[in-house]
Amino acid sequence: MKGTLRYLAGIAGPNGFGSRSTAEQVTQYSFFPCSNLTAIITGGTSGIGAETARVLAKRRVRVVMAVRDMKKAEIVKERIVREIPEADIKLLEIDLSSLSSVARFCCQFLSQDLPLNILINNAGVFSPNLEFSEDKIELTFATNFLGHYLLTEMLKEKMIDTAEKSGIEGRIINLSSVIHSWVNPVCFSFQKLLHPIKYNGTRAYAQSKLATILHAKALSTQLKERNANVTINAVHPGIIKTGIIRAHKGLLTDSLFLIASKLLKSISQGAATTCYVALSNETKGLNGKYFADCNETNCSDLANDESVALKLCTHSHSLIHDYLHQYHIHSLPNLCLM
């Protein structure tokens, strides 16, 4: 109840920002050197992804939008350029549910010889019914976690190299959700994530968002051990008026949804935490953390479990290694193992 009252009041956290802060507000006085930076954002054709792209472009960051629908992306790009004529926005196609598409995207991006300072794993889906990707993996897990896992691992060395050459800290941001805390540890099994026996859309979504935090925890440890000037953190954007909320209204009873609807953030407020972690000087050096309302906060005990994080990354490593070997792709760098 206290947290709900704080949210409704828009009470700011220790850094002066809170649930009512917008993406423009939290980046207005950023001391992080934004010019000459390059950021990749997945899922930038709508909602907080599009707003994140707009605000980063406004702060002079070159934005590479990794998108599934190129036509929608062109419309978003045109809208941003009309507002910000100097915006530098590139569009590249990706389907995060397809491992081969992710691999193609990475090869295409790396061939352009651009630096990479920021990677924002933003895209997400909610599937109320059991669906499988072309790789025969449950669609929500394939899109929300596994595709982003492969994307990050294939681009990680580029980010480390960019940070070393530029002296500017690289930043990876995984979009998660407070719903990760709903996951029962007994039910969190890698094989069941890939091929659920009794499918529940809400559970699948929550598990995928838990996995994004565990990934951040595991990879942050590896980056620290390598003394790499790159960080990875997870963020909860809040409950936002987006397509995902419309799609998974079924996860709440009608009465709870009515209450939740009063707490919905605007899209600009929803993009604030991502933009803050990406560009703020105050987040420099913070690694493996979890943020909400633009402030560091606590995640669930399960999300903090290093052994669970290691197991998830080990299984993901094995699955992706076997897949890439089938397609004769041998350039994947060292994967996320602690």
Task: Characterise this structure.
This protein is α/β, with parallel strands linked by helices. It is built from 13 helices and eight strands. The protein has helices at residues 2-9, 23-27, 47-58, 70-83, 99-111, 139-166, 190-194, 201-225, 243-247, 254-262, 267-270, 272-279, 306-326, and strands at 38-42, 62-67, 89-93, 118-121, 170-175, 230-236, 290-292, 295-297. Helix 6 links the parallel strand 4 and strand 5. Helix 5 (99-111) runs parallel beside helix 6 (139-166), helix 6 (139-166) runs parallel beside helix 8 and helix 8 crosses helix 13 (306-326). The radius of gyration is 19 Å and the shape is globular.
Briefly say what this structure is.
Keywords: Oxidoreductase. With 338 residues, the protein is an alpha/beta fold.
Structure characteristics:
338 residues, 46% helix, eight-stranded mixed β-sheet, disordered C terminus, alpha/beta, 13 helices, disordered N terminus
Largest sheet: 8 strands, mixed
Strand tally: 8
Class by SSE composition? alpha/beta
Strand order of the largest sheet: 3-2-1-4-5-6-7-8
H and E order: HHEHEHEHEHEHHEHHHHEEH
Specify the overall morphology.
globular
Percentage of residues assigned to helices:
40-55%
Proportion of residues in β-strands: 5-15%
Rg calculated over all Cα atoms = 19 Å
**CA distance, first residue to last residue:** 38 Å
What is the subunit arrangement here?
single chain
| Mean pLDDT across all amino acids | 89
Unreliable stretches (pLDDT < 50, length at least 5) are 1-9, 334-338
Q: DSSP helix count?
A: 13
